[in-house]
Amino acid sequence: xxxxxxxxKREADPTRQTLSRQEIVLLALLICLLAVAWHLSPSFLSxxxxxxxxxxxxxxxxxxxxxxxxxxxxxxxLSVGSIMSLCGVxxxxxxxxxxxIGASAxxxxxxxxxxxxxxxxxxxxxxxHPLIVTLATLAAYxxxxxxxSQARPxxxxxxxxxxxxxxxxxxxxxxxxxxxxxxxxxxxxxxxTPLGLSLSAIGYNETAxxxxxxxxxxxxxxxxxxSGLAAGVAALLFCALRNTAKADIGTGMELxxxxxxxxxxxxxxxxRGSLLGTVLGLLLVHEAREFVSWQFNRDELNLIVIGALLxxxxxxxxxxxxxxxxxxx
Amino acid sequence: xxKRPAWRRxxxxxxxxFATMAVVGAVxxxxxxxxxxxxxxxxxVPTVIVACGMTLVIVTGEIDISVGSLxxxxxxxxxxxxxxxxxxxxxxxxxxxxxxxxxxxGLINGLLxxxxxxxxxxVTLAMLTILQGIGLILMNGAWITDMPAGLRYFGVGRMxxxxxxxxxxxxVVALFMLLASRTPLGRRIWAVGSNPEAARLAGLSxxxxxxxxxxxxxxxxAVATIVSVPRLGVIEAGVGQGFELLVVTCVxxxxxxxxxxRGTVLGSVLAALLLGAVGNxxxxxxxxxxxxxxxxxxQGVFILAxxxxxxxxxRRPRLQTRMQASREAQA
Lengths: 329, 331
Prior knowledge:
The complex is a heterodimer of chains A (329) and B (331). By secondary structure, chain A is an all-alpha fold. Chain A has helices spanning 2-12, 21-40, 47-54, 58-72, 80-96, 101-126, 130-149, 159-166, 174-192, 195-204, 206-211, 216-242, 253-263, 275-296, 299-320, 322-327; strands at residues 154-155, 168-169, 172-173, 244-245. In chain A, 75% of the residues lie in helices and 2% in strands. In chain A, the strands form two sheets. In chain A, strands 1-4 form a two-stranded antiparallel ribbon. A two-stranded antiparallel ribbon of chain A has the order 2-3. The two termini of chain A are 16 Å apart. Chain B is mainly α and 331 residues long.
């Protein structure tokens, strides 16, 4: 028990100064990858190419932030991809029916937050297993997105909006700034408030967390709402980047986000998690994916590389970590 | 003792199935025509077959979300091995290869979960991505349209007037129901899921049970691919997409607990039939073409309602005992 408490303090403390083993492994993998990339095709690492390629990752990155916190509480949110599709469609429909672009965007974010909050109510207050809740809403939200849009695409958004996805400030893409803002906000919450420790406590032992007076249900409700909101932001970024909205823009997003989070060392059983790990996981997924596409011109290879990375990183974590060995017995 | 709630669930799923059919049948008699019922059953075959294996996996407390992309990969392999314009192997050899490949992927999943001690959701998530990638590379953006007649037989052929796929599904369901309720192996699988610690002390190997469940799921995915894919004359890259979520949903709606130990094969099968009927009903309700776009929404809301209703029904007594316990603790 005290063992666990120490582990809790050491591993979950978001203010800790040292890197965890998983983060070191990720950094090493990332450096190897970039070294190989530099050797094979130096132009891949040029700043202009990197900035150009980075447009692919920002939406996913925004979704992965709250996903990290959700998974830390031993939860999961499989519905983010569907919420993203739903928000995109709501935005497109609102814009088409002559609602001002700002109000349309606000409406889309509102729908995202509401969809997330609905997940949160079922998970936190009705207390259904999050895997089941979000599996059901994955189908439901996707279905509603297809239903209200009748599977039509929307496009023709004004330049003032597409600047959100395609513009840049001092050479840095606007979606990247939005992600950094979200990252800073999440990190501040984890470092300056007891939220990080609360999340770990809920993840390690929810009953104990409840009995020690943590507002477990309220925290969970906010987490799932944040997750839905992030999916809404990702939808707007996608619409602005591609200038189109359709009922399938978020398909598969949930699994990619979970991959990045788990790759980053957050335990799928809850308790142990790291925002820095998620950022590294995102970087590794992104660079591996883009480099394979860049070098071999085959998008399908990406999937194999990412799957293999996920297996390898978790395998190494399980084999070399004494804690993993003990907890699985 | 552990069987009673699941037994009740089978009744409620059956009742819902008949209610749905009665309502839709009242609006449109064509829904209940034998030809439509038969087509609906044939549509349900892959879900029913794989749900049998998935039930075992979930009962042992694990999950397998790789079955959808496994089915896509197996369909590609099956098509490329048999089609005269690709490998052109004999159908029997191709089928043996596909069965082996399916069981092999299940074995890898199982080994990673049991011996490398990785969480099954991560193992099968990684496998989902990897298999999808391999399938897409093998397919290379093309379609396979020249399946030999010997292979098409498994999709469209009949025996005693009943399609081969229905015979296969019936055999699989019967086999797994017997396995679950009448064999020591079945009892061990349920024991490992409901109380791992007690099962371990009783000398049961959770590893072997889980390994068996994963291999069976892979093998059944191969069986489902063989009897469902050749039904259409074309194999494309999208086969199996989203199938894993459908199968898991059926098992959960059918009363299997996601944390393991409780559930029945029959419940999963009935839930698969129910979800099939719900997905099919919109066409028959005379709501016009635009209504068919709502098919998935209705299915999703339906799943959510079913899971919630059941959860609430099961939760209440436990909540009371917990409140009682906390009151005693305070006193």
